[in-house]
Design goal:
Layout: H1 2-16, E1 23-27, E2 30-33, H2 34-65, H3 72-83, H4 89-98, H5 103-123, H6 130-139, E3 145-146, E4 149-157, H7 160-171, H8 176-183, H9 187-191, E5 195-200, H10 206-214, E6 219-220, E7 224-226, E8 229-239, E9 242-243, H11 246-276
Antiparallel strand pairs: 1-2, 3-9, 4-5, 4-8, 6-8, 7-8
Length: 282
């Protein structure tokens, strides 16, 4: 049945492809065309998506039979989190439009995913305790260390003379942020008044890293040759290496442990549900 489904899908897809047979690769004396790539990609994607949906439906059916529910606020919290990654509500809706999906359907998709996850947790009888999380925390100390970091601002100009002029102005009492806005030739630095945020070791070239990590807060470098210009870098704040307190990370650890257990057992659970269910592919 699966082979037949694959053949029907490919034949239907090929019949829709009327574009020129563009050759994109050669193997000995034979060619691979763009249409062949499209067909292979689409058929594989179709089969994988169908299998994912069957698995999800099996778990949702289990959830419905066992009175497992998803609250509206759970779905809304996830959507709000996703929306926060966009500049505006309008940009979020534009992205949905690109995917040709309504917000209602998007919400339903998230609800189904949550319900399937809850069903898995129920089947596996998952109950990760604070003690489980603490054992993981104590056994993996390196994962919870935050390395030493410095908060930097940068003024970037084209020539050494411009950099020297800026440095003289700073020495005379000019405000670093204002100078970054006025003098930096990099538009991003202008907009952010030179703010680079917190930088950890390994993110800068060794020479600059060594200097800025050795500096005290509220000090700045002399002009430094960087790329195709010159920079003056200010250390605004310094944070020593520290370990995230257990209470601050406890819930995330519990979530990670659950995720790992689910991943390890998901296929086994789905195979059991498939054996107990009647699945037909038309």
């Amino acid at each position: 049945m699966k082979n037949f489904l694959f053949l029907v899908f490919v034949c239907a897809f090929v019949s829709l492809l009327k574009a020129e047979e563009k050759k994109i690769a050669q193997v000995d004396k034979t060619y691979i065309t763009l249409n062949e790539v499209y067909v292979k990609m689409s058929a594989n994607y179709f089969t994988k998506t169908l299998d994912d949906l069957i698995s999800e439906k099996l778990l949702i059916n289990y959830a419905n039979k066992n009175d497992i529910k998803v609250e509206k606020n759970e779905v809304q919290n996830i959507i709000n989190n996703i929306k926060s990654r966009f500049n505006s509500e309008k940009d979020f809706k534009k992205e949905l439009l690109k995917m040709n999906i309504s917000e209602k359907d998007y919400s339903k998709m998230i609800e189904n995913e949550l319900l399937a996850q809850k069903a898995l947790i129920s089947i596996l009888n998952l109950n990760v305790t604070d003690e489980d999380a603490k054992r993981y925390y104590d056994s993996n100390p390196e994962q919870f260390k935050i390395p030493q970091s410095v908060k930097l601002r940068q003024i970037f100009v084209n020539t050494e003379q411009e950099a020297n002029d800026v440095y003289i102005a700073l020495e005379a009492g000019a405000n670093f942020e204002k100078m970054a806005e006025l003098k930096s030739v990099d538009e991003n630095l202008k907009k952010k008044a030179g703010d680079l945020g917190y930088i950890t070791k390994g993110m800068l070239i060794p020479e600059i890293e060594k200097e800025v990590f050795a500096m005290e807060a509220n000090k700045y470098t002399k002009p430094i040759k960087t790329g195709n210009g010159y920079s003056i870098i200010k250390v605004e704040d310094k944070k020593n290496e520290r370990t995230i307190p257990f209470e601050d990370i406890k819930e995330k650890i519990k979530g990670s442990i659950k995720f790992e257990i689910i991943n390890q057992n998901k296929n086994r659970v789905l195979n059991i549900l498939k054996e107990k269910s009647e699945i037909k592919i038309f």
